[in-house]
Design a protein that fits this description.
The chain is of the alpha/beta class. It is 45% helix and 10% strand. The radius of gyration is 22 Å and the shape is globular.
C-alpha cells in the first residue's frame, strides 16, 4: 500500500455496513485498518473535520468539493477559486425533468439511500413523491438499505406507496409495511412510466441504473422530455407563452 501524506475518510453508507461493520466501534476499526502502519506516529499529524461554509450547507457535492479544497491547503497548493466552487455547485444541484404528463428525477444515478435522501429533500421537501426502486441481485446490502429508507419515508408521511423492480423484489416487499407494487423483469418501461405518472405525483427513481430496464426507462423519459420541449417551443411561437410559462414555473403542491 502507498504511504500517503493525507488520508481522506468519507461517510459510511448503510449498504457498506455489511462489510465494514454495523457498530461505530466496528466502523472505526475498519477505517483504522485503512491507515498505513506508522502513520499515526508521524510528528505533527492532525485529524481535521472539513468545514462547510454556511452558504453551502445542504448543497449536493459541497462536502466533496470543500474536502478537495482542504487537501489542496494541506499540501500548500492554491485553493479552488470561490467563483469556480459556486459555479460547480450550482451546476450539479438536482432539478426535475419535466414531461407533458408530470415530472421525474433519476436519483438512481447516486444509488445510495443517503445521497438519494439529500436529492429528494432538495427538490421535494415535504411533498409526496412516488418512488420507484430498481434492485440488483448482487447488491443485497443496498436492497436492505433501500427497504429501510422507503419504510422511513412512509412512516414520515412522505410517500403513500412504492414501486419496485429488478431482482429481490419479494424480499424487499416482505421487509416493509409499505403498500408496494412489484414490476417483473419483463415489464415494459414505457408502460410502467405511464402508470407511475398517472398517480399524479412527482416520480423519483432510486437504486440502480445499469439494468436494461432502467436504460429503457431513461430512454422513455428522454423521448417524453423532448416531446414536451417541442410543445413548449410551439406554444411560444404561436403566442401561447403565458400558459406555457405558468406550466414551466408550477410548484405543484401534491399533498
Amino acid at each position: 500500500m502507498t504511504r500517503p501524506d493525507i488520508i481522506v475518510l468519507t461517510n459510511v453508507r448503510h449498504d457498506h455496513t455489511d462489510t465494514l461493520g454495523k457498530t461505530r466501534t466496528d466502523l472505526a476499526r475498519s477505517f483504522a485498518r485503512s491507515v498505513p502502519a506508522g502513520t499515526h506516529d508521524r510528528r505533527g499529524g492532525t485529524i481535521e473535520q472539513v468545514a462547510i461554509p454556511d452558504d453551502h450547507q445542504g448543497l449536493i457535492g459541497a462536502k466533496t468539493i470543500h474536502t478537495v479544497d482542504a487537501v489542496l491547503d494541506a499540501v500548500d497548493e492554491p485553493p479552488l477559486p470561490a467563483d469556480e466552487i459556486d459555479a460547480h455547485l450550482d451546476a450539479i444541484q438536482p432539478t426535475w425533468t419535466r414531461l407533458e404528463d408530470g415530472h421525474v428525477f433519476g436519483a438512481a444515478e447516486v444509488n445510495d439511500m443517503e445521497s438519494t435522501e439529500m436529492v429528494r429533500r432538495t427538490f421535494a421537501g415535504d411533498e409526496y413523491t412516488t418512488p420507484f426502486v430498481n434492485l440488483r441481485r448482487d447488491r443485497r446490502g443496498r436492497t436492505a438499505s433501500f427497504a429501510r429508507y422507503i419504510q422511513l419515508l412512509f412512516d414520515r408521511d412522505l410517500i403513500e406507496e412504492a414501486h419496485v423492480g429488478g431482482a429481490n423484489t419479494r424480499a424487499f416487499v416482505e421487509n416493509t409495511d409499505v403498500p408496494t407494487e412489484r414490476h417483473g423483469p419483463e415489464a415494459d418501461a414505457d408502460t410502467v412510466l405511464t402508470e407511475l405518472l398517472a398517480e399524479g405525483r412527482p416520480v423519483v427513481f432510486m437504486g440502480n441504473t445499469v439494468e436494461t430496464f432502467m436504460r429503457e426507462m431513461q430512454a422513455s423519459i428522454e423521448r417524453r422530455a423532448k416531446a414536451r420541449r417541442r410543445t413548449v417551443a410551439t406554444g411560444e411561437a404561436t403566442g401561447g407563452s403565458e400558459a406555457t410559462s405558468a406550466e414551466v414555473t408550477e410548484s405543484a403542491d401534491h399533498k
